[in-house]
Amino acid sequence: MSKKLQREIAKRRTFGIISHPDAGKTTLTEKLLLFGGAIQMAGTVKARKSDRHATSDWMSIEKERGISVSSSVMKFNYRDFEINLLDTPGHQDFSEDTYRVLTAVDSALMVIDSAKGVEPQTEKLMEVCRMRNTPVLTFINKLDREGLEPLEILADIEEKLQIECTPLSWPIGMGKRFRGVYNLYRKELNLFRPGDDIRSTKTVKIADLSDPQLDQLLGSQADELRDDIELLEGAANPFSAKEYLRASQTPVFFGSAINNFGVQEMLDAFVELAPAPGMRETAERIVEPDEEQFSGFVFKIQANMDPAHRDRIAFLRICSGKFTRGMKVKHHRLGKEIALSNATIFMAQDRANVEEAFPGDIIGLHNHGTIKIGDTFTTGEVLKFTGIPSFAPEHFRRVRLKDPLKSKQLQKGLTQLAEEGAVQVFKPVTGAEFILGAVGVLQFDVTMERLKAEYNVNAVYEGVDYTTARWVECADRKLFDQFQKREQGRLAHDAEGHLTYLAASEWRLGHTMEEWDGVQFLKSREHS
Ligand code: GDP
């Protein structure tokens, strides 16, 4: 293994930000990009968001409802580190997409609104991180406003998210009395001046809290800080890098993203503590990042990044080896060799052709319908990265075409949208019309808009009385034949041809499962 490859891996950090909508994810992202020199001006990320709205018709849904549907990838440099930031959609209806994005990160940053504490979407996203043992660093935001007591927030996190908290910074007051944070990690005081949009320069090194300088700087709040820290020393868990990397402890920072306060301290700790790209599991074996062989998997397909070109970009996470422009790789699902000649790397405002890239990097491949979510590419060995599932849908609609002559377009559109993971598509074993399944109902709206805009298909939805689905498998051929005969009215094939049982209720499903003891009913399924 080459030294250069190891060096490149060591300086990479690939992470996603998780938060409930409005906690400040966009604002924080923007400040991180400012520090990375990826943007020059605050307001750029938001501006870019609204730009996209104006030019893309299906994204009007996002605009109308003030939500972020699409996620994107941003690369920037900070100190000697190369950082890949993966944006996740905040709305819970797109949680399947978020889940897949989180399969491509090595760690996560959780943003919490200090006035709200842990919110429902934070809980859901943390559940995903826990399932994958993803290390999480926490940023408590909006200290410039009145909020919950810091200890209360930590208790809330520990209770609701089942993760031990260890504060690495501690706020001094909040709202109007917010004076700054004491950095427990570096033993320095960072004083807050409202409205600073650049890094707060007023940092005072105070190794010993009994230092009278503290009283001069903070007045009566100096003793409050001393009391708080004394309390913490007795009550809080000491920081352990090992526990953080095992995802059983989260280091906590306090600040105010909009005032750019506490952000750089957090970023400094993040690059030092967060894990570099790690190993990945495949069906065959574990792949280490510093193997010479190139390997990677596609975790997301995004359409309409550039509405003028109706493009579809497949995002691939590099898991091992080095990517060089034009290299030939094996597309394992198709069993074909292809040349990766125009891969793209995404910066905050730009995209550029990439000449070389390393594990942890995300490259965008132009996709003309040959790449699906879950596809694996390597320079030879047959591998299949695992852990990129589809989840059983909870909402269903039947699609009825208004113009029967458009059935080919409808089929094409639905196949492509299913490959992107925008929606799940089922073809009933008996019956001609497609049934769509989704984890969140907004997926239906996006699908319909896109069928119209991109495939010129005019269709409507009809309700169907299904509420749940399971993929079915059975080793006993005879039993499975019997099952299929008896239940054919409730069976459908998904876009990849897997047989699925659609049920009107949990009760009905339970009943059928009992009746067909030898048949397996699966709640999630790996992409094949
Ligand atoms: P997102 O939905 O998580 O991306 O949240 P945004 O970054 O869009 O922020 C939501 C709202 O909170 C916006 O109005 C921001 O201006 C505001 N906000 C973000 N950070 C802070 C902060 O540190 N203090 C205060 N007072 N408001 C903030």
Q: Could you characterize the architecture of this molecule?
A:
The protein is of the alpha+beta class. A hairpin with a 6-residue loop joins strand 26 and strand 27. It is globular, with a radius of gyration of 25 Å. Helix 12 (407-420) packs across helix 13 (442-455). The two termini are 31 Å apart. It has 3 domains: 15-71 and 107-273, P-loop containing nucleotide triphosphate hydrolases (Rossmann fold); 280-378, P-loop containing nucleotide triphosphate hydrolases (Rossmann fold), CATH 3.40.50; 389-526, Alpha-Beta Plaits (2-Layer Sandwich), CATH 3.30.70.3280. It is 29% helix and 29% strand. An 8-stranded antiparallel sheet has the order 18-17-23-14-15-22-19-20. Strands 28-25-27-26-30-31-29-32 form an 8-stranded antiparallel sheet. Strands 2-3-1-4-5-11-6 form a 7-stranded mixed sheet, with helices on both faces. Guanosine-5'-diphosphate is lined by residues 19, 21-27, 90, 141-142, 144-145, 256-259.
Unreliable segments of 5+ consecutive residues: 47-59, 61-71
Mind telling me which CATH architecture of the largest domain this is? 3-Layer(aba) Sandwich
Number of helices: 15
CATH superfamily of the largest domain: P-loop containing nucleotide triphosphate hydrolases
Instruction: Summarize the main sheet.
Output: 8 strands, antiparallel
| Overall pLDDT level | 87
| Cα radius of gyration in angstroms | 25 Å
As a percent range, the share of strand residues is 25-35%
CATH class of the largest domain reads: Alpha Beta
Total strands: 33
Assign the CATH topology of the largest domain: Rossmann fold
Shape: globular
Structural class estimated from helices and strands = alpha+beta
Tally of discrete structural domains = 3
Strand order of the largest sheet: 18-17-23-14-15-22-19-20
User: CA-to-CA gap between the ends?
Assistant: 31 Å
Bound molecules: guanosine-5'-diphosphate
Helicity range of the residues?
Answer: 25-40%
